[in-house]
Amino acid sequence: MFTTSVPTGLQLSLSHKTLQNPQLETLPTPPTKSIRSPSNPFIKHCVKLRHSSSYRHSHGHALVVGTTPIREITRFQECMDERRIVIDCLLLLDGIEVPKGLCDSCSQIVHVSSTVIKKISGLQSIDSIEAIALIKIPTSFCNMEDYKGEPNFGRWFPSPHRILVLDGIQDPGNLGTLLRSALAFGWDGAFLLPSCCDPFNEKALRASRGACFQLPIVSGEWEHLETLVDEFQMKMLAAHPPENCTQMAESSSLSQELADTLACRHACLVLGSEGHGLSDKSKESCELVSIPMVGEYESLNVSVAGGIFLFMLQPSNHRTI
């Protein structure tokens, strides 16, 4: 890890990718503990972190809005890393004290005006927003496009019993909700195929409530997923509502009986995009499974359907019923 200068004197740790873009090292550094102007260079830096996926990942940081997700993330990271400092910068609304439990987790604390909070968060109403944090993108996230060397899925997914695979999920709200559900039902990680949105997108973060900082996530191509499947001999299932009688005969129905047959097997569940459904590759590679429904509904929203699948197929040692 390396450090470089950023606005307002805050030292943010950057990944090795940052050094490939020298423009990121030329930001001014006026020292301050309070920022009132939305035109401050550091505030512009924060807004770019919110807007741009490439900027986020080149700096190795994400912007987390709201005290509750910030506290959840720090609590989890402290348990995993056994260390206290997990927030590089905590931005607090003027007059607000450091939330309980976060004081020892912050490297820097800066008080900002309500105008600045609104600018950084991008929200019209900030009535419930008192804190925004700059937190390192966790090492549990890996983008195979940037990874050099042989894939090490045993390190990224220490217990790959249940892996959620997202095939072109572009709506950040759906992606965040699915990651949150996967974490809630004890799944071991997520694999993002091409065309998925960034899990550290502001809306995805809001929907996931910080789950992307807690759930191991790998972003890669089909060839990487096939390596994972082969390495751990995983059963591949894909959620797919049948479009006609032929497909209905070829697909299985989600049931407790199906879940029981998979109890002792490694398995991954593929969910397709909102507009186009599963890719042809997913349909060819997976056993298609549908949710039995009353009436003639074509399908459910992917986050709703995904939640049902994640609950029904959750690891047996995590079942709540």
From TrEMBL:
Name of the protein described by the UniProt record: tRNA/rRNA methyltransferase SpoU type domain-containing protein
Domain tRNA/rRNA methyltransferase SpoU type: 163-311
Source domain of life: Eukaryota
GO MF, one example: RNA binding
Record's keyword terms, sorted: Methyltransferase, Transferase
KW Transferase (keyword) present: yes
Gene3D superfamilies documented for this protein: 3.30.1330.30, 3.40.1280.10
Pfam family, one: SpoU_methylase
One Gene Ontology term from the biological process aspect of the record: RNA processing
